[in-house]
Design goal:
Mean pLDDT: 96
Strand content: 25-35%
Structural class: alpha+beta
Largest sheet: 7 strands, antiparallel
Number of strands: 25
Length: 538
């Protein structure tokens, strides 16, 4: 008996394996058109492995140790042979790692190589999460007929570009990831994670930010420099945007996401694109962050690869289920729907009211609410959509106690209010400075007064000194506010380091060194009715 296999079966809640006797062929050389060779490991049952469906995982994070044990072994024990390949420039693969930009050419060449191998049968399933899911979208419109299904997990077709929006630079995630891939092959990297995290925190507070990569890594990172210097419209990023390929995908796709995942908006966009194109994709969204629940995420991804992917690889139909399965937070239950966004939910405005109240009625004339934002003491990120240890649902008491955070709260609800779909806000806002940010967060306040974040979003302004209605797009959600609970909206001007702090000067993020405090105004009168717009069950 294999103790590792048994442990993984229990931890990942997997069905019993067909075999625990698995062999690994290490360092297979996969040639690319430019002469570079990428290394891959093939996992297969010791007996009868040749000809089984191939699960292909292309990863920048290595192939051995825990990574291979969690993502390759369970599949090889349950009907697949698994090819786990290291992407260009990492863990023995040739060439130079240029994040995100080489995956289409290398991915297509890898597929071409796989189908020519003597051990290959007649079916490939693409699977994996995050970067391993992005590489699936990079080739998705030119798949050979041997590819039978895709299972992208917590990912989307234009990875990184969500972070580089002109109206809000997400800093913590792309910077932290850039540091991770730059340092992960260093000696004793795992043992030095705590000290490395301290360096990252110091780097995120560095001015100018253009020097932050040297603080965290010890040398320049082209990827991090491009994140800091180039907006989403830069040609530098055009090669990584595969949105236009999604419409042409014809293989079955089962997409898995999380309500607090960094890539959720793009993942839902990709799903809708397939849905609108007449395909029959599947979608599963749970109460997960991007990386906080590794075993939970691995379990969901592996079980879907076995249930959905293996069935299609064998020419069978997977078990019947609704196209969309969502975990409704608050209710804490899984629910099935026919589409995303689901039908039967209508936008309802909850207006910011005088005295910190929140209700559907249009507010009467009232004084504006004010707060002061100081980028030298920036409003911190607390939980939410991050890759930090405290990501996801957290108590917001400390955040809401700050003078630079305004809150607006309903009375205790007389009945449940169910919110499922896209969430937005319109905040009438003015700053003493031309450059400012507006951050809006939706929270559920329990009878005990504990305020827990549901979703949030940020918009950056370049004419903030002019009173205007600021549109803020929050993360999509599925949440039931229970009877007796209260709905709360926070308004502030940042969530650092999730978002880069706004220096208030208009200087580029990479080179800004001057920080200016700003006096902010939030208006909520009849002609300036600030509101959050919730998709409420009708």
């Amino acid at each position: 008996m294999n103790p590792i296999s048994q442990l993984l079966e229990r931890l990942l809640k997997l069905p019993a394996p067909a075999t625990r006797n698995v062999v690994v062929q290490r360092n297979l050389r996969v040639p690319m058109p430019d002469g570079v060779e990428l290394l891959a490991d093939r996992w297969a049952p010791r007996k009868g492995g040749e000809g089984l469906p191939t699960a292909l995982l292309r990863s920048p994070y290595g192939r051995k140790g825990v990574f291979g044990a969690i993502f390759a072994r369970p599949l090889a024990e349950r009907g697949f042979q698994v090819l786990m390949q290291s992407t260009r420039g990492g863990f023995g693969s040739g060439g130079v790692f240029d994040p995100l930009r080489q995956e289409r050419e290398d991915g297509l060449a890898t597929l071409d190589w796989v189908v020519k191998q003597p051990w290959f049968g007649d079916a490939i399933v693409l699977t994996g999460g995050s970067y391993l899911g992005y590489v699936q979208w990079a080739v998705a419109d030119r798949l050979p007929p041997e590819v039978k299904a895709m299972i992208p997990h917590v990912t989307e077709s234009r990875l990184t570009l969500e972070f580089l929006r002109e109206d809000g630079l997400s800093l913590e995630t792309p910077f932290g990831w850039g540091v991770q891939v730059a340092t992960q092959e260093r000696r004793f990297a795992l043992l030095q994670r705590r000290s490395q995290a301290k360096k990252v925190n110091q780097a995120l507070n560095t001015l100018p930010l253009a020097q932050a990569d040297v603080v965290a890594i010890g040398h320049r990172s082209d990827y991090i420099q491009d994140v800091l210097a180039h907006p989403e419209t830069s040609p530098r990023w055009a090669a990584i945007d595969h949105r236009d390929r999604v419409t042409d995908v014809t293989v079955p796709v089962s997409s898995i996401g999380g309500w607090y995942d960094i890539f959720l908006p793009g993942q839902l966009r990709d799903f809708r694109t397939l849905q609108d194109a007449g395909r029959r994709p599947r979608l599963t969204v749970g109460p997960w962050t991007h990386a906080g629940e590794l075993l939970v995420g691995a379990s969901v991804s592996l079980r879907e690869t076995l249930e959905f992917g293996l069935a299609h690889a064998r020419g069978e139909e997977p078990p019947e289920r609704a196209p969309v399965r969502l975990f409704v937070m608050g209710e804490e239950k899984w629910r099935d729907f026919a589409s995303w966004p689901p039908e039967g939910y209508a936008p309802q405005r909850f207006h910011l009211q005088p005295g910190g109240e929140l209700s559907p009625g249009v507010p009467a004339e009232s004084e504006v609410d004010r707060y002061r934002y100081d980028p030298a003491d920036p409003t911190p990120a607390a939980g939410g959509v991050r890759m930090a240890p405290d990501a996801g649902r957290v108590d917001n008491a400390a955040l809401e106690a700050r003078a630079d955070v305004l809150t607006y709260t309903t009375a205790a609800l007389d009945e449940d209010v169910e919110v499922i779909g896209e969430v937005s806000a319109e905040i009438w806002f003015r700053s003493s400075l031309r450059f400012a940010d507006v951050f809006v967060r939706l929270c559920d306040v329990g009878p005990d007064g504990r305020s827990v974040n549901v979703c949030d979003g940020l918009t950056s302004l370049t004419h903030a000194d002019e009173l205007a209605a600021v549109p803020v797009r929050l993360w999509p959600t599925a949440h039931r506010f229970r009877r007796g609970h209260r709905i709360r909206v926070q308004v502030s001007s940042g969530a650092f380091p999730r978002y880069a702090r706004n220096p208030g000067t208009g200087e580029p993020h990479a080179t800004a060194v001057t920080l200016r405090a700003a006096d902010q105004e939030v208006h909520h009168g009849p002609g300036h009715a600030s509101a959050i717009v919730l998709p409420v069950r009708s």
